[in-house]
Design brief:
By secondary structure, the chain is α+β, with helices and mostly antiparallel strands. Helices cover about 20% and strands about 40% of the residues. Strand 2 and strand 3 form a beta hairpin. The longest helix is centred in the N-terminal third of the chain and has 10 residues. The radius of gyration is 16 Å and the shape is globular.
Length: about 170
């Protein structure tokens, strides 16, 4: 499963503040990006967290919050501009799921009508590095979904980020 995602060992300490910020952020500060609404996160909300500060310094990422409407699905896709997103689900743990598509085969032949799925297991306060170069989707069959995301643009590779996380015991 590490091909698709890597779950960090330690929680991000600013989880409650990030959730409150997302819930109270004025609508005029959200912009549409693909099928999500996105807002930047001020540095003071995550600056004290050693992981977030280190990863943003090392990979020049962007810290944002993604908002997904209730009861919708963002279909399978591969991200074109970023290779890695380090995501921490802020709410809606029981009713939203991210997953990856893995082709199913029968006797070595890919079945075009059936795929396996591998689900990303989110936990409160725990971030997950996602390989956005692999086909993935999100389904949200609950309330509005809020995600803190550190977006790392290409040409950085997912494998390089995971190696860095392991070497630094994140």
């Amino acid at each position: 499963m590490e091909k698709f995602f890597y779950k960090l060992k330690n929680p991000i300490t600013s989880h409650p503040e990030l959730l409150e910020y997302a819930k109270t952020r004025h609508p005029m500060y959200w912009v549409r990006l693909f099928s999500f609404l996105v807002t930047k996160v001020p540095e003071e909300l995550y600056a004290k967290d050693p992981f977030v500060s280190t990863i943003l310094e090392r990979f020049s990422g962007k810290a944002v919050i993604l908002k997904m409407p209730a009861r919708c699905m963002y279909n399978f896709h591969v991200d074109t501009e970023r290779s890695v997103s380090i995501n921490m689900l802020l709410n809606n743990f029981d009713n939203s799921h991210s997953f990856y598509k893995v082709p199913m085969t029968h006797s070595g032949v890919i079945d075009p009508n059936l795929d396996h799925v591998i689900s990303v297991d989110y936990a409160p306060g725990v971030a997950v590095a996602l390989n956005t170069g692999e086909e993935h989707a999100v389904i949200n069959h609950g309330a509005e979904r809020l995600v803190f995301a550190i977006s790392i643009d290409k040409p950085v590779e997912y494998s390089d980020v995971v190696l860095f996380l392991k070497e630094n015991n994140f």
